[in-house]
Amino acid sequence: KVNANKVLQDLNRYLAVPAPSNLRVTVTGDDISASWNSVSYARSGYEYEILRGSSRITLSTTNSTSASSSSLDAGDYIFRVRSHNIVTDSAWRETRFTIAPQSLGQVNISSPAHGEVLSNNRVRVQWNPVAGADSYEYSLSGPNATSSYISTGSDRFVDLDLNQGDHTIFVIALANSGARSQFTGSRSFAVDIPAPLAPSFISPAAGAILEPGSVEISWEAVPNAAFYRLNISGGNESGIFENVGGTTSITKNDLIPGDYSVRVIATNLEGENSPISSTSTRRFTIVDPTPSVTNLEVSFTGTTLNASWRGVNADEYIVTITDLFTGRQIL
């Protein structure tokens, strides 16, 4: 004999399957494990999902009363589960959990060496990769101190233009998940920029005798020179030192005839100058070009000889008349 009431009760339970109870989520680092109590009428198991904001991270089904997920980014999440059968699903049962940022390893700076004294203001600081890091940031203390950390992106180096003095750089690693180095890598070093050596002239040649026009004055570059100052004295030049920047060559087009002396001084970022030496001083002379005569015209008026010409760069002229038949110079 069939008990109709019991059948109806069983059918109602089957159609109205309850949500799982006692939902628990345990967080271990960036991994989670979830569990809940069994539901008798969950004939098709359970469906669960993990949400971060409005984004679904995981959607899956299981016949057991537990689930897990690993390598979650730092942030706030919702885990929810519902009973599942072929006819209907229960309401969701949910709980919230948080993945805290995980610590990354300390940055190991490989160069420059600790306590190293560098003779160039252009310094490249390099470090070894940190597992799990997506980017790096650095800050400086010393003459070029920074007020905050500066990102290098994924690059494991930074090129710095530093003033003379003692410097310390601090580097941290970061992950997109929000994790960062628990301890900061640091390296102390010094920059001691020596005074530049005296530059050596290339042109003009020592004692050169030149005609007016374009005169190139050039010299060899020297280490640690931030800029050069040039002094040209003689002729129409003032003899005042002129900052020509980092160039090692200039062209003068307006020098008048006369004797000239040129000196060049290299200066570093600290304002220290190279010494004046024989190699950094050059003398040369601008002379008038060779005189010439053009447009010579000769005519006679009776026994009188008339001659005219055009002189170029001449102060005076020497005139000779020669008898072509006898070869005798008449004038």
Mean pLDDT across all amino acids: 88
Helix content: under 10%
Which spans of ≥5 residues are poorly predicted at pLDDT below 50? none
H/E element string? HEEEEEEEEEEEEEEEEEEEEEEEEEE
User: What share of residues are in beta strands?
Assistant: over 45%
Instruction: Please tally the helical runs, counting DSSP H or I stretches of 4 or more residues.
Output: 1
Q: Per the principal axes of the C-alpha atoms, what is the gross shape?
A: elongated
**Major beta sheet, specifics?**
6 strands, mixed
What is the straight-line distance between the termini? 164 Å
The rounded Rg comes to: 45 Å
Number of strands: 26
Structural class: mainly beta
By oligomeric state, this entry counts as single chain
How would you describe this protein?
This protein has 331 residues and is mainly beta. Helices cover 4% and strands 46% of the residues. The protein is built from one helix and 26 strands. It has one helix at residues 4-15; strands at residues 24-28, 31-35, 46-52, 55-62, 66-69, 75-83, 93-99, 109-111, 117-118, 122-127, 135-141, 150-153, 157-161, 165-174, 185-191, 201-203, 208-210, 215-219, 227-234, 237-238, 242-245, 249-252, 258-267, 281-286, 292-301, 304-312. The strands form seven sheets. Strands 17, 19, 20, 21, 23 and 24 form a six-stranded mixed beta sheet that branches. A five-stranded mixed beta sheet has the order 9-15-14-11-12, with no helix packed on it. The longest helix is centred in the first third of the chain and has 12 residues, at 4-15. The model has no long low-confidence stretch (mean pLDDT 88).
